[in-house]
Amino acid sequence: MEESHDPPFQDQYKNLFDKLLDTGSKYAYDYDLFIVEECELPLIDLDKLNSGEFEREKCKRDIARASQEWGFFQVVNHGISRGILEKMRSEQIKAFKKPFHDKMNEKGFDFLAGSYCWGTPSATCLQQLSWSEAFHVPLNVISGLDGRNSLSSTMEKFARTMSDLAHKLAEILAEKMGHKSTFFRQTCLPSTCYLRMNRYPPCSLSPQIFGLMPHTDSDFITVLHQDQIEGLQLVKDGKWIAVKPNPEALIINIGDLFQAWSNGVYKSVEHRVVTNMLKERYSIAFFLCPSYDTTIKSCVDPSIYRGFSFREYRDQVQEDVKKFGYKVGLTRFLA
Q1: Active-site residue 281, yes or no?
Q2: What's the CATH number of domain 29-333, 2.60.40.1730, 2.60.120.330, 2.40.50.100, 2.40.37.10?
Q3: Whole-prediction pTM
Q4: CA angle, corner 285, sides to 310 and 321, nearest 5?
């Protein structure tokens, strides 16, 4: 009998399912949360950055406006070839299709040692369970692999181009705040940025169990490549909306650190992934993060948030997740 490649969610979290059955209660969900409208994110053609001054400046203004009003946008002509994107997806699928125990024991994944994770170890109820698995890999690990196999060489090319794009966007957003800053180049290093390859298996309890529970990202900028299976949703004007996949585009979203750095001008927006009852879903994200000792401080005064180090922020997030089951985030750091 062939061993399953799916994590054993129902066995591992049996106590959470049993607790639900024992009480005889229904899921403690507001089902209106899952009746959402589909939308297309603001679409920005980055080729305009190579045009004349008027078109270039308009493109930069559009990036800043989307970051203020949505916290999310999508980009085309982003400089990452379709060939790299398709190869990365193919290699990612092969990695996740290995037997579950091979992934857990890093069999054939010595170069990804310690990067595999699944579910939500801290979950105390089904609402906190994320029905997904991931490889979470720092950039310096990827760049040190020297192309030892097809997956590592593809990841290296993919990571390099995603990093370049994230830095370019960060610098544009800083410029539109009146800062020609080298801050991001100096602090967001290969040892602190990372890729996260995600797989969301089919879930018979969809959509009541999340693929990824509602959260904001604890970074400056996230660059996401996703497949054409719907699942990503975000909050806009107090309502959850579903993001319509665009095969030509990458999705960009603002993280908590950029919201703090910009004094609340750019918005880190809550988002989630919902499961699909029949189909699996894949995505891969690049996270632009600084070193742990980096101080995050508003670029303008008076500041909404007090200064804090990235280490302090991460430690507080982990403490809150352990204590409450969810991330509290930037409200912990108001001035």
Answers
A1: yes
A2: 2.60.120.330
A3: 0.94
A4: 45
